[in-house]
Amino acid sequence: MASRYLLMLAGSRRQRWANDLREAAVLAAGEAAILQRELIENIRAQRVSGVRDALRECAVRAASMHKLIARAAMIAIQIDDGLAEELLRNGDEAPHEYVVGQLVYVARAATEPLRRLAIARLARSFDPQARATLRETANDASRDVSEVARWALQRQPDQAHD
Fold first, then answer.
1. Residue 114: closest CA among 66, 138, 148, 155
2. CA pair distance 118, 86, nearest whole angstrom
3. Closest to 76 (Cα-Cα) out of 25, 144, 6, 27
4. Counting CB atoms within 10 angstroms of each CB, which of 39, 46, 84, 148 has the fewest?
């Protein structure tokens, strides 16, 4: 089902984002069938470790498909490659200094899903403008945005100068 939807979105377009969607569709169709068979076989044989391994593999494959789909979306809405990469990066490292201003702008002015991604990335920034943006968005009208902002404020690095 997911692969058909991705193929429909991509259509016959030749842009990079459409190619990413087609690649995700192929992964979704082929890998899902293989992983489902493997999971069912392990459940029938009552192999707990096999079930656990199959579920882990499903999570890994889903993450790779998610990344392709997210990249396609970023390209489709014409977000700068550096900013797109930063929005999709996760982990505990601070965002690159050269995109903090862009992240602040997105956190304040973009669509809600992009705002949440930007706010999450600002969580590890030492930049005073980032911290001010997090404080602002912690009281946002959108419950989801304000929740992410409050989470981000809790993860902010200690800053003696702030």
1. 148
2. 8
3. 6
4. 46
Angle at 119 between CA 152 and CA 154, to 5 degrees: 5
Residue type, position 80, single letter: D
> What tens digit of pLDDT does each residue of 137-147 get?
999 999 999 99
Query: What's the distance, Cα to Cα, between the start and end of the chain in Å?
Result: 50
User: Which 8-state DSSP code applies to residue 126?
Assistant: -
Contacts of 120 (CB under 8 A, 6+ apart): 90, 148, 151, 152
Question: pLDDT per residue over 13-72, tens digit each?
Answer: 777 777 777 777 777 777 677 777 887 887 888 878 877 787 787 777 777 776 777 777
Contacts of 33 (CB under 8 A, 6+ apart): none
Contact 86, 70 (CB under 8 A): no
**Rounded Cα distance, 145 and 113, in Å:** 8
Task: Give the amino acid at 15.
Answer: Q
In this structure, the dihedral spanned by the alpha carbons of residues 83, 88, 89 and 94, taken in order and rounded to 10 degrees, is 50
How many CB atoms are located within 10 Å of the residue 14 CB? 8
Taking only Cα atoms into account, the Rg of the chain, rounded to an integer number of angstroms, comes to 19
